[in-house]
Design a protein that fits this description.
Layout: E1 2-3, H1 10-16, E2 18-20, H2 27-36, E3 42-47, E4 54-67, E5 91-106, H3 107-111, H4 135-146
Parallel strand pairs: 1-3
Antiparallel strand pairs: 2-5, 3-4, 4-5
The structure holds a DNA duplex (12 and 12 nucleotides).
DNA sequence: GCCAACGTTGGC
DNA sequence: GCCAACGTTGGC
């Protein structure tokens, strides 16, 4: 799950304990979330649009996606005038803080790891804010998080 | 700040 | 339903 740390970072998540992951406004990302996010699943928290893009830690899905309240709030940047309570467009999962890594797994490191070259994150021009990570990719990422210097994961 | 790549919008 | 114009994302 991507987030801009100036908006909401892993530190924010840690201090809040858990949060409604509001503001997903892309149908593909939404569909991923509705179809694939299950309570108990681990998620990688990725910081984008910042000096060091990369994965900064882990969260856990606490609840299945529910209706995103920000779509009905005219003062919210995520307000969607075309959505209605009767037919809500957008949903959000509740995410609980799990851990923050002592060092992030940088995007550049992910790029240089051969077994991660198929990650959706590295696909040309891709912009999805919620992406699936294959089990083998997840294992590799966790290994990199523990051993940042391991170039051959 | 630049710019490539993508999603969305809206006229027709 | 096409598609050009526009807005957004996000690394650099």
């Amino acid at each position: 799950m991507k987030t801009e740390p100036e908006e909401f970072s892993i530190d924010t998540l840690e201090s809040e304990g858990s949060t409604l992951w509001t503001g997903v406004r892309n149908y593909q990302a939404r569909n991923h979330m509705m179809r694939d996010m299950k309570p108990g699943q681990t998620v990688f928290v990725y910081h984008s649009s910042c000096p060091q893009p990369g994965i900064y830690g882990l969260g856990q899905v606490e609840s299945s996606p529910c209706v995103d309240p920000t779509q009905f709030d005219p003062r919210s940047p995520y307000f969607d005038p075309k959505s209605s309570a009767a037919k809500p467009r957008w949903h959000c999962a509740k995410i609980r803080f799990l851990e923050k890594w002592s060092r992030p797994v940088a995007l550049s490191q992910i790029r240089h790891t051969p077994s991660l070259k198929e990650m959706a994150l590295l696909k040309r021009g891709q912009r999805l804010s919620i992406q699936l990570v294959a089990p083998q990719q997840a294992k590799t990422l966790l290994r990199l998080a523990l051993a940042p210097d391991n170039r051959h994961a």
